[in-house]
Amino acid sequence: MIEQKRILRTSLPGTGSAALAERRKATVSAAVSGGNDLYITAAEGAILVDVDGNQHIDLGSGIGVASVGHSAPRVVEAVTKQATSFGHTCFMVSPYDGYIELCEQLAKRTPGDFAKKSALFNAGAEAVENAVKVARAYTGRPAVIVFDHAYHGRTNLTMAMTAKVQPYKDGFGPFAPEIYRLPMAYPYRWPTGAENCAEEAFAEFASKAHIQIGEDHIAAVVIEPIQGEGGFIVPAPGFMKLLREWCTTHGIVLVADEVQAGFCRTGKWFAIEHEDVVPDLITTAKALGGGLPIAALTGRADIMDAPVPGGLGGTFGGNPLSCAAALAAIETMESEDLAGRAVQIEELLYRRLNAMAEKYPQIGEVRGRGAMIAIELVAPDGSKTPDAALTKAVVAGCGRRGVLMLSCGSYGNVIRMLPPLVIDFALLEDAMDVLDEAFAEAIG
Ligand SMILES: *Cc1c(COP(=O)(O)O)cnc(C)c1O
Fold first, then answer.
1. What is the pLDDT at residue 36?
2. What is the Å distance from ligand 1's center to 259 Cα?
3. Cβ of 224 below 6 Å from ligand 1
């Protein structure tokens, strides 16, 4: 048992982490970078233990993965049991029940009161790629619409769908064709004000889609119901509904990319449920596997059956260990009401962050849902000029004190909080005290 407490035994990084950083430099591609160079030897709940024995509060959850907590007991037990029976056969070659049971769970949990089917993959990007494949096969159309600030992955097709060049796309082109980027309903930065955002953004969307692409060339609209890497942007209320109606009118597949926001993170099983919108296809990954790699594409049965038999798959997709882990993670979310817990985390974070925003005018906006909350940092003069340097300094200040925070945003000026949903509230309060200290220090 790891005590759920922040403990600093050495200065950071300790000698053990420093030694590993040296070995890493010699052998790991420099292109795999970022992070705090603290090397982890154990983790439980919301605590990461580094090789020097320091205990860190994890507000990143391995980028939204450890929603059920690190080393969640049900997940550990299920994976151990599966590993002692069999580890891999390939579902396309020698199938097994865990794959089917997980697809049943996905059909049951995802929004939409209609017959649903799923296919399982290894990572979020792969689920998104397959959503595009399925939508194209179903509609017989080529074009895909994505949005400003979107993040959909790092494979060739998903790089094309991702908005930000640095660091995700620089030097990696040419990119896949027939991907069109249209404006996102980003309330905080909408030129005529948040109250006009949904309608104006949709009008611009519909006009550009008509003039620049043509509705009957469009297979899919792919959108994150809350944008993740792009800065935890919650679309203006009503925008998703307008998109849904427009897609229905034109026979276009609406894909909700719930890779980051799905599985109880936002206080509901799926973030799109807050919008009272039912998508045709949903991509999931991150939290789905309770720490093991797995991704899914779930949606309307007739759409999911459109590709040719054998058209979807992969060697490792829906690996037995990952299926066992995902089933255990879903059971944990259900029996511990982790969606309800995300709502309580939201209350705590908004209370603490709004209080900080009163003190620090550099906090331009506190936003997000459930345990997916962010602050956007800007110049304190009302201009909303992004402050990436302050963001970096605050994240580093938290890191030095044993609180792991992640930054994000197209302008690199957003600090996002994605704690495990099982986090002790005392630990979360402690993390907020640390954030406050780091802010005071960074502003000087
Ligand atoms: C992380 C992420 C992806 C890519 O998932 P990987 O597992 O890293 O391939 C896709 N979409 C969204 C919204 C994500 O947050």
1. 85
2. 5
3. yes
